[in-house]
Amino acid sequence: MILNNKQHLFSLQGAEVILGDILEPGQLAIPIAPSAKTMFGPRAACLISETGPLWVSDTGHHRLLGWRKLPTQDSQNADWVIGQPDFYHEGQNAKSTPGKATFSVPTGICACGGGLVVADAWNHRILIWKNLPEDHNVPADLVLGQANFKDNEPNRGSQLAAPNTLNWPYGVFYHQGKLFVADTGNRRVLIWHQLPTEIGQPADLVLGQPDMISRNENGGNSPTAASMRWCHDITFWGDNLVVTDAGNHRVMIWQGMPTENNAPCSVVLGQKNFDLVEMNQGFYLPSASSLSMPYGVDVFGDWLLVADTANSRLLGWRKLESILSLQGAVADIVAGQVDFKSKGENHNFGLPTRDSLNWCYGVKVCGNTAVVADSGNNRILLWRLK
Fold it and tell me: How many CA atoms lie within 13 A of 49 on its CB side?
């Protein structure tokens, strides 16, 4: 259900299309064996245009699923798979060694010009396709975080980070020629000023750490406006950079695009100030201004949409004239729960419905469609926005 204080944003009918198996009445569990329609804990998805194609990180099956056109039917079969020999196999790196078309826990995914970028989290790397894949197991053209397509050690085997290493990168975003990566295990966001053209190319800018080699959570100190604990997703709200800092239960917003290493953000959502980082602001139940492990984020017009993952809900804030006025602001809408104080999966631990959520990890918007990675329900929701 959706509570709207200002307007209806999410369709009241719930998801227009559900991808993945749908629980039937009396069915106690959904099979998660891989097929052309099943998914296991999908973490993210990317709708390239309003008519498709659609790419999904089927995280638990260690593969990408691709639909040539925007799906129009529930449980519609995917057209392509990357990362496994066919639709019916699973396993990290296809139960072999890393390669140009294998994954170990793929998560964030985004378009980059005419290509595709995927965060291959447990291979500690980013894979880049210069052109959108349009077939099974198309090999990636570039890898970041590793010196080649075979290696997969965190930070290339070092105890320290570096501008060309990664550790559990979970989020990717491409904006105005720049590539942003949530290098989650190193508690930082890396920025390339131009889309990389070389294997293992080092980043140009770092946020969340005082330098390119540090990797302590919150910079090794108490939380600040510059520090991060578990950054996960990235977007731009107008001209303002937005990063979900799930470990600090907040969303960080910079006024404009940062130009210096370790630049502090201007405002946070989910916490009353920069020093406080407790889940749901220290209360068991959430509120309209609190967050619990927010992983996903994107924008729809003036709206900032946040996947408040551990509260199994989506929150929406309407943009104000000054971004600074948003410090600690209450959300305007909630989807997936009956009100702002509820947090149980699938409307208080019920069965999945078209408008319920269970640990939603991702939300991305294309046109009027919100693509929601409803990970705990092993499905992707295509939800119409108004």
Answer: 9
